[in-house]
Amino acid sequence: MVLYLHFYNMKFNNPIYENEELTYQDVFLFQNYFDGYSRSEVNIQPKHNFWTQIPIVSSNMNAVTWRRMAETIARYWWLGVLPQDMNINTLQEIIEKIRSASVKYGNPITVKPNNTIRDALWIIHKRSYNRVIMVNDNNEPIWIFSENDMKNLDQFTLLENLTTKKPITAKDWISNKDAYNLMDENWISALPIVNNNGKLIGILTKKDCIRHEMYKPTLDKKWRLNVAVAVWIHWFDKIKLLYDMWINIFVLDTAHGYQRRMIESIKKFRETFWDKPIVIAGNVITPEATKDLIEAWANGVKVWVWPGAMCTTRMQTWVWRPQFTAVYKCALEARKLWGFVWADWWVKEPRDVALALAAGANHVMLWTTFAGTYESTWDIKYDEDGLMYKENYWMASKKAVELRSNKLDNFEIEKRWMYREWISKSKIYLREWLEWVWDIIDTFTTGIRSSMSYVWAKDLEEFYEKAVIWVQTNAGFMEWTPHGKIRK
Question: CA-CA distance, 161 to 144, in Å (whole number)?
Answer without folding.
Answer: 13
